[in-house]
Specification:
This protein is mostly beta strands and 647 residues long. It contains 4 helices and 54 strands.
């Protein structure tokens, strides 16, 4: 009996030992499986991080040419994605694709802790405490596609870069990049060091693509997305100027309502007159306003042969001034008098009319010049400057008018519906000044309007409001509009140009479309200017000579900085270079982030041998259109080129 009990006890002990050993093996196996799963998961995480870090390093190196910058970009992105204590290395090497391109090579090495059971499973005689962690690694190559892109279609899933017919795209020393596809059909030619697309690259129907091709590339970011290019459209001066307190119409003085000048007439200061008039019989050679205090009169009518007038210092309140002489009228202004004119200053003279000397002009009924001979205002030297505050606009309808250096505030349009209006075949010229022109500008076919540059550091060129249905600037065929240098010119409305437009330096902010495509044709010359428009920008018809050079675009040598914007539109409507615009030369950036750039017919857009960068949602060229640029000035670096993850 005792022996049987001993045997059963021994058997139970043996089973317990076997069970314990079996359980230990099972637990260790489970621990190893759990740790292996964690290792594989962490390796996949590291691979995702290293892929993104390689792309970041490639873009950073492309834009800076600096290995240190690339290393910082890779390390920063890895840390942001949770690399923790992983070790990141970055190098610029030859791409493993074997195409001769460079690539950013990024590795990551991470230590993954083992569970307690996992450490127990790795115990050995040499390491009785077990292994506490395993080291895993991942790597990636992001290939850099040559030079930075100077032609970029930013919209994913859009039309990308599409060319058809006998079109030509030539990009010297810079890439053509599309965040959608690149499609060449029915005969176009595209030449660039590299052409990249997030989607496919299709070359069919006798088309030609010269240079390396990189379909299925990474998405190229918009380099201006955070630059706030269109900020001034919100901050520009688009508020109508406030009219000052124009004078009330003078009352008829006691003792008579009119005086006819015979020979000479002296008008003392602090006096009141009715209508003062010159006539042929008797003749009047001189009217002298001695000045001092305030002189009032119902009207000043100048009719007949030559006459001279002089105004001394003081204030003159005049209901209206009418000039219809057949002889020369000379008006001398001394001491910078103030002329408050309730009605209009009107001239229909057949002989010259000359105002000499600075003055402060406040005219509520506008300046209306229908003279067949020149009407000239001049400051007369001495450094004085005139000011013109005018309700009712300035209108030239039958000759020429000349205005001095000064400040021009036009608070409302005239009968033409514009603040400044020059009829067909006529001309007007303004000296340097500050121009705040409510109602806009209109010049007819064959006419000329010249506006000088900024008078001083605070001078402005503003068209804050327009009459309903009118453009802010409208010019006719064969005309010439010239505007001098202003830091910022703010135009609240559509700019519609026929004829010729010559612009000085500065930024033109157009709260509307810029339409240089009307049938009248002409030229646009802006050698140091930028256009920022809310609406579409179009060139076409007879405009076969368009030259726009963005400020500093020709001289900037800062690597990594994009060229200055030359043309920018925030419109969702397409901007176009159309048939007839055969010589459209732009140096700088053409930027249409929300719309398409179209070139059709014989529309040609070129950098004229310098760097033109085109950034648009999509770029579509058809007919015999062409797009040509040479951005070798950017060098091997200087922009953000396209990259492809190759391993």
């Amino acid at each position: 009996m005792t022996r049987r009990r001993r045997l059963r006890a021994e058997l139970r002990g043996s089973v317990a030992i076997v069970t314990a050993v079996g359980m230990t093996v099972m637990i260790c196996s489970a621990a190893i499986a759990l740790d292996l799963a964690n290792l594989y998961y962490m390796k996949s995480v590291d691979q995702r991080i290293v892929d993104q870090s390689a792309i970041a390093a490639a873009f950073a190196y492309q834009s800076s040419g600096s290995l240190t910058t690339a290393q910082k970009a890779a390390a920063g992105l890895a840390l942001a994605n949770g690399s923790g204590s992983g070790t990141i290395t970055t190098a610029i090497v030859n791409s493993p694709s074997g195409d001769g391109a460079q690539a950013a090579y990024v590795t990551i090495s991470s230590s993954v802790p083992l569970s307690g059971l996992g450490r127990a499973a790795t115990r050995s005689q040499a390491n009785p405490s077990g292994q506490s962690a395993f080291t895993i690694g991942a790597y990636a190559y992001a290939e850099i596609h040559g030079a930075p892109p100077c032609i970029l279609a930013t919209q994913a899933g859009g039309s990308g870069v599409a060319a058809s017919g006998g079109t030509v795209i030539t990009a010297a020393a810079c890439d053509v990049t599309s965040n959608a596809s690149v499609v060449l059909s029915n005969g176009p030619t595209l030449t660039a060091p590299a052409t990249s697309a997030v989607g496919s690259i299709s070359v069919v129907g006798g088309s030609t693509l010269n240079g390396s091709q990189f379909p299925n590339s990474s998405r190229q970011p918009d380099p201006y997305a955070s630059a706030d290019v269109f900020a001034r459209l919100s901050n520009a001066f688009f508020t109508n100027p406030t009219a000052p307190g124009f004078p009330s119409m003078p009352s008829a003085p006691a003792g008579g309502s009119g005086t006819t000048c015979s020979g000479t007439l002296t008008v003392p200061g602090n006096s009141s007159y009715g209508t003062i008039q010159t006539s042929s019989y008797p003749t009047c050679s001189l009217i002298s306003f001695s000045g001092g205090g305030t002189t009032s009169m119902l009207a000043l009518n100048l009719v007949g042969p030559a006459v001279t007038l002089s105004f001394g210092p003081g204030t003159y309140k005049i209901n209206k001034i009418n000039i219809s002489n057949y002889g020369t009228v000379n008006v001398t202004l001394s001491g910078t008098p103030t002329l408050d004119i309730y009605g209009a200053l009107s001239s229909s003279a057949s002989a010259p009319v000359n105002f000499t000397g600075a003055a402060n002009w406040n005219i509520e009924g506008g300046i209306n010049d229908s003279s067949s001979s020149p009407v000239t205002f001049s400051n007369g030297g001495g450094g004085s400057v005139s000011s013109f505050t005018i309700a009712g606009g300035i209108s030239v309808t039958n000759g020429s008018a000349n205005f001095p250096d000064g400040t021009y505030t036009i608070t409302s349009a005239g009968s033409s519906g514009y603040g400044v209006s020059v009829a067909g075949g006529d001309s007007a010229a303004f000296g340097n000044g500050s121009f705040d022109i409510a109602g806009g500008i209109s010049i007819g076919g064959g006419s000329t309007l010249t506006l000088g540059g900024a008078l001083n550091g605070t001078a402005v060129f503003d068209i804050p409001t327009v009459t309903s249905g009118n453009d802010a600037i409208s010019t006719g065929g064969g005309s010439m509009l010239s505007i001098g240098n202003f830091t910022n010119s703010d135009i609240n409305g559509i700019v519609s140009i026929q004829g010729n437009l010559a612009l000085g330096g500065g930024t033109y902010t157009v709260n509307g479309a810029l339409d240089v495509s009307a049938s009248g044709g002409g030229t646009l010359t802006a050698p140091n200017a930028s256009f920022i428009a809310a609406g579409a920008i179009s060139f076409g018809a007879g405009f076969n000579a368009v030259t726009v050079n963005a400020p500093s675009a020709l001289t900037s040598t800062s690597e990594g900085q994009p060229a200055t914007v030359a043309l920018a539109s925030e419109s969702t409507s397409a901007s176009a270079v159309e048939a007839g615009a055969t010589n459209t030369a732009v140096t700088g950036v053409v930027y249409f982030p929300n719309g398409q750039l179209m070139l059709n017919g014989a529309g040609n857009l070129t950098g004229n041998g310098a760097c033109l960068q085109v950034i648009a949602q999509s770029i579509v060229i058809s007919g015999r259109g062409s797009l040509t640029t040479n951005c070798s000035s950017l060098g091997a670096v200087g922009g953000s080129g396209s990259v492809t993850l190759v391993q």
